[in-house]
Amino acid sequence: MDRESSSDEEEDRQKLIDQNERHGTKSPKHSTFHMDDDNEFKDRIGNARRLGLPRFAFNKRYLFAIFLPIFIIVVYFTTDIRSLFQTSVSNVTFDSSDSRMRESELRALYLLRQQQLGLFKLWNHSFVNEANFDLSSNPNSTVASSVNSTSSFTNSSPVLHDRFSALSSSALLEDLKATVLSQMSLNKQIQQILLSTHQSGNYPDLGDNVTDPSISGYASLDRCRKVDQKLSERKAIEWKPKSNKYLFAICVSGQMSNHLICLEKHMFFAALLNRILVIPSSKVDYQFNHVLDIDHINKCLGRKVVVTFEEFAEAKKKHLHIDKFVCYFSLPQLCFMDDERVKKLKSLGISMNKLEPAWVEDVKKPTKRTMQDVMAKFSSNDDVIAIGDVFFAEVEQDLVMQPGGPLAHKCKTLIEPSRLIMLTAQRFIQTFLGERFIALHFRRHGFLKFCNAKKPSCFFPIPQAADCIVQVAERANAPVIYLSTDAAESETSLLQSLVVLNGKAVPLVKRPARNSAEKWDALLYRHGLEEDSQVEAMLDKTICAMSAVFIGSSGSTFTEDILRLRKDWGSASLCDEYICQGQLPNFHC
User: Fold this and answer.
1) CA-to-CA distance for 96 and 93, rounded, in angstroms?
2) Within 13 A of 345's CA, how many CA atoms are on the CB side?
3) Predicted local distance difference test score (pLDDT) of residue 394
4) How far is CA 225 from each of CA 99, 353, 412, rounded to the nearest angstrom?
5) Residue 493 or 348, more confident
6) Burial status of residue 340 (CB atoms within 10 A of its CB: 0-12, 13-18, 19 or more)
7) Of 126, 321, 488, 502, which alpha carbon lies 20 to 30 A from 515's?
8) Helix or strand or coil: residue 247?
9) Which residue ranges does the record annotate as region Disordered (predicted)?
10) pLDDT in tens, 264-291
11) Buried b / exposed e across 6-36, counting CB within 10 Å, b at 16+?
């Protein structure tokens, strides 16, 4: 029994040993000093927390909160913070003030330069006008005599020369006032800019018009304002014709403008002789009813003073006869009429007596006559008389050239464009130009030969003409120029490229070709007048006469008729002048 039990114990012990060897790799033995693995350590810590044991783990936020106040206290007691920030701000202020002062000085220097240029321009202008004054005050000089001899070619040139001389003097005075005012304004701007560095706030811009209170009343001075025509001093005669007495108008010289001047003088003669004026037939002259408002003349005088040829023929019951034909001009031929003109008159069924001279009178050297001279030579009891072309006649020029003409009437002027042309001109201005524009009559075609026959010539090279136009544009302060010209495209293109003010081209506007999309010329189109060359010429005149400032061509009757309209309408400006007035062409043949 004992042996069996002992063998069983040994067998059990052996099984136990084998089992322990099989599990040795999974459960290694631990020494006394071996610490447990992480999980075991965490379990122990967790158990410790649950048991309420104290924790000594560190937090970074707590450290930052502790050390920051300490750092600030140390910096505060070791550094002068106030002096540090004060130095920085003062440096910024100093840099800003210095930059502002430099900018003000540069702007002041710019304005001083502008003031210097303005004074130089005034200085040079005074020399030009001094030369012109010497020219007019010394008629014995070569140039003056040449000017006087050529001006007599045009009928109204002597009077116009005197009128433009007076206007030039007024314009010079206005230029002087405006220039002085401009320089005073510039000086004030310079003062303000230099003082601005010692003041707070913004300083004035270059465009500001800073003026002194003592001259504030002249701040709106317009250098190109309208001319005072002094209508209260106007003298006029009454035109009260007899109902059966007629003066048959005959105009031969030149083109439409010459004929309009001739008609105006015929009206003066008819008034002196108490006769009704007969407007020439379109078969021997221009079709005046297309360009003139003939009824307007009768309405202005309140009675029948002019009649058309058709009305005259009806009144005379087809018995058309000129009872007396006394010629105002005898040279170079009687009445300044050739045989061709006489044949045209006779083709209308007009018979006439022999032409006879009133006196010896040459169209190239007309004598100044008085109203008494005319009445003494041409008064007659005959029903119908004619005196020939009177375009070159010089009778009471001071009276003829005054605003409104020599006759008493209730309108601004007697001979003016038709209503259709007036409305078309206004619509064109409304469409393309606006209220303030310059009008330029630039006569070129056929003018080279005409002007070169004069001494000195009146034909200016385009660069010189462009420079003169720019000077007027600067004075007038107008944004656009209406161009009425017969020049070729090559000339107008060059002129446009040279008319530049302050680095900007001043547009030269011409009437465009007919375009159905544009309505400004619809009235002429509806009445079949859009292709009438005389209507187009009168339209050009009307637009020019309505401009703020007009530049004309010396020696052109087209220009003279525009000046007449401007004078009568009250649109004449102190800046109106001929191209390069007071200058000589810088090149001539």
Assistant:
1) 5
2) 22
3) 95
4) 43, 53, 19
5) 493
6) exposed
7) 488
8) strand
9) 1-38
10) 999 999 999 999 999 999 999 999 999 9
11) eeeeeeeeeeeeeeeeeeeeeeeeeeeeeee
